[in-house]
């Protein structure tokens, strides 16, 4: 049995990843950590006769993460592989930093960086006794490297996620049974975050037209296409050797 723990499966990449996994012929279980349930995934699991477990969790409530992970691992037995995909993220606030409120900054950094760090820590701790394939895929963004005005929170949280990934990779290389980890820039995808950024007023985000034009020209990837590439990356034999994968489309498959 392969177990996939995925954050943010209510829509977008997380939902597409869960669908791809549930449609696989192999025996697997999708474990969802999300604020909202997804009836479509539950129905698909029932049709495909696969296991789908939903754990309601708001990643801003960091004190609840360890309890959820502990509960999850109490039900993991005879694992062939265990995988954590830190996918959930928020975009707001998108505005010059002086317009960002204290609450917005704290919520953003907690969701995009602190919670993935806690999840990773807990995952590694609980898998230390498992003799199986163990991997973590962190969904980052090109915004970590290519900076734009009005995205100081988003760029900072994703850059922090990349640095965290590299640090954990260094630690795990010294282990006898390491957890392989990588951070990836998935590209520009038509998700809720993209719709959100296209609706930002130009006074708050002067370059909003670039995202609007990319959408109008049909340059955005679909969530399903991206999910397929992400899973190919996750299971590549060299996964983790390159800690930061900047070009998903050209990554080793």
Topology (SSEs and partners):
Layout: E1 2-7, H1 12-22, E2 28-34, H2 39-48, E3 51-56, H3 65-74, E4 81-86, H4 102-127, E5 133-139, H5 152-172, E6 180-184, H6 192-198, H7 208-216, H8 223-234, E7 244-245
Parallel strand pairs: 1-2, 1-4, 2-3, 4-5, 5-6, 6-7
Helix pairs in contact: 1-2, 1-8, 3-4, 4-5
A few lines on this structure:
This protein is α/β, with parallel strands linked by helices and 253 residues long.
Strand order of the largest sheet: 3-2-1-4-5-6-7
Q: Which CATH first-tier class would you pick?
A: Alpha Beta
CATH architecture identity: 3-Layer(aba) Sandwich
Q: Given the C-alpha coordinates, what overall shape results? A: globular
CATH fold descriptor = Rossmann fold
Our count of domains comes out at: 1
Number of extended strands? 7
- Could you spell the SSE succession in H and E letters? EHEHEHEHEHEHHHE
Number of helices: 8
Largest sheet: 7 strands, parallel
Taking Cα atoms only, what radius of gyration do you get, to the nearest Å?
18 Å
Which bin fits the share of residues in helices? Answer: 40-55%
Subunit arrangement of the protein: single chain
Structural class: alpha/beta
Uncertain stretches: none
Mean pLDDT, to the nearest integer, reads: 93
Q: Strand-residue fraction? A: 15-25%
Explain this structure to me?
The protein is α/β, with parallel strands linked by helices and 253 residues long. It has one domain (2-245): Rossmann fold (3-Layer(aba) Sandwich), CATH 3.40.50. The protein has eight helices and seven strands. It has a seven-stranded parallel sheet with strand order 3-2-1-4-5-6-7, with helices on both faces. Strand 4 (81-86), helix 4 and strand 5 (133-139) form a beta-alpha-beta unit. Helix 3 (65-74) runs parallel beside helix 4 and helix 4 (102-127) runs parallel beside helix 5. The radius of gyration is 18 Å and the shape is globular. The mean pLDDT is 93.
